[in-house]
Design a protein that fits this description.
Helix 4 packs antiparallel against helix 5. The chain has about 100 residues and is an all-alpha fold. The protein folds into two domains: about 35 residues, no CATH class; about 55 residues, no CATH class. It holds the Pfam family AzlD. This is AzlD domain-containing protein. Keywords: Membrane, Transmembrane, Transmembrane helix.
Length: about 100
Amino acid sequence: MYLTILLMAGVTFGTRYLFLHHKLPFVIGPKAQRFLSFSAPAVLTAIWVPIVLLPDGELQLNWHNPYLWGALVAIAVAYKTHNIYATTIAGMVTFYCLM
């Protein structure tokens, strides 16, 4: 188990080092940069969609779903303010008030 943790830490460090160290002659082309720009939204969507739409393991698109209300409020606040703190607080407050 410790060997697995050390190996994964080494892989993580190695990949980060390649991208972040400026003295290494490693450059990502514009096509690869464009392709990688979609990875964060894709991963975040894969995380939040099941939490919001499938809170008990089945699809819940009704108005009694506090996860859905919290997400809708967070989307509205993010669109209006472009402030991550206001978005997070508004979504969390909405969710906890409806729980």
